[in-house]
Specification:
By secondary structure, the protein is of the alpha+beta class. The chain has one domain: predicted glycosyltransferase like domains (Thrombin, subunit H, Beta Barrel). It has 2 helices and 7 strands. The protein has a 6-stranded antiparallel barrel. Strand 6 and strand 7 form a beta hairpin. The radius of gyration is 14 Å and the shape is globular. About 14% of the residues have low confidence.
Length: 121
Amino acid sequence: MNTKEEKVLNKRKLKRRHLIYYLRVFDRNSGQLIGHLVDVTTEGVMLISKHPIETNTIFKSKMVLPKGIEGSKEITFDAKSIWCKKDVNPNFYATGFQLLKSSPEDIKLLERLIDEFGFRD
């Protein structure tokens, strides 16, 4: 683990939750797939992708939900890529993102997503 990643992990206040689905996350502008959601908190997400994702970049993203939550079929969010490294599976990359300016409605949707589709510890 590099120093930057260690700092992020040490600063994390919320435990990341793995979901029973690998939800797809897309760029809102281009519609291109950014990656698949691996874990989530109301402050950040980790995605897995086939290609490395540039760090310190802000992404305007949308995540398609497996079923409607609170009447929504997707969650939109802006996120900054903080770190990127080879995944345990060397064919993929894992990237950590910090969520930016999430609205109270988006936070509520993320909390419901975690509650409904998160693995129980």
